[in-house]
Amino acid sequence: MKPAPGSLLSAVVVLSLVLGFSLMAQRDARKPTARAGKAAGNVIVPPPLKDLGKDYKVRLVYFVPSDRKVKPGYRDKCETLMRIVADIFRREMKANGHRTRGLDFEFAEDGRLKVHLVNAKQPSAFYTGEPFDVDRLLNSQQQEIWETTGYSRNRPTLVFSEAGAVAEARPIPHVYSGLACVSGDIFRDEVTASTIEEQIRYFMDPAPVTRVAGSEKRARNQESQTSNGVLIHELGHIFGMLHDTRDPRNIMMRGYDNLGRMFDRKTAAERPVRFSPAHARMAAVSRFFSESFDKSDTKAPEIHEFKVASPPQAGEKTVKLSLSMSDDKGLGPLVILQRGGGQIDALVRDLSLKGAEKRSGTLTVTAPRALVAGQPLIFIVNLFDVNGNLSQAVINSQVVARE
Q1: Residue ranges of domains in the chain, CATH in brackets
Q2: pTM for this one?
């Protein structure tokens, strides 16, 4: 039976309302819960990653020995982790007054972050050795990664390894490369989320989870913050940074344990996790952040002399170092680290050489604690030129008794 015009209009209205309520219900079903929605208004969500078109990029590798399994969702989780990493580097470089588009990564043909899956030829023990040998792990992995992905010139490699638990970095400065290695256990669902919003919620979730590469329990917020923060720390070593115990907020100390506070609007402005000015200066001149450098200059600065000017004495806190260096294109920043002297590592001097071709003289550095007779004392200097070439020199010394 054909309906009257009024009845037809009523039917259309009713149908429209039904469809409208149905669409609203679907939309609401996709919304976060009330708790997550509230959190969304109070957190900083890092922007999506995009290809910056740089020649100097970070390469990501998931290394899985023949006796281990690939964890599901590793690519999504890697993208989540790198959004955090890239955001912290970008924000901290800006906070320290350096202009940069930030860190760049390799991207796949589908426009997403590229993660090289290396199904390794050997079982885990082949790479770790028995007993565990960190040098063997790094060397054997690097060789097989190069065989699979190609030689990594201009490509420092961040490796998520299922072979063994280690957080270690080994720069290869003469080809703007290096290897930073962390445990593939970071890809467990309990520690790393597949979305950035969920990852930030993890940073604030006290629920107990099993630790990365361990068996004991730890709060999810601590485990997620630390494991994600370690990636920033290890890449920092590739970019010329050394450990810095002068401020507990420093990423090159253990400041990354509080990484989540950088994504909480109430605390982010205080920069509770940070790079020191010295280390931001080092990263800024590296080719991975610098926006202006001469590619044709591939010669590292020369360190002609780096030695203790006079023997360090027990009871003293100051040490005089003799340093002579040069670069035909201009010297950039340097940092000097002391190993020993009451702390594991302490940054004891930093300089910006502002393009000078030569610098030499005596530098006085201050130890964090008074020196003790007989203790070994190591000083390490990392020196950049203005075009992102890096050199390193080491002093091995010993504290003598006061005369």
Answers
A1: 59-285 (3.40.390), 302-398 (2.60.40.10)
A2: 0.88
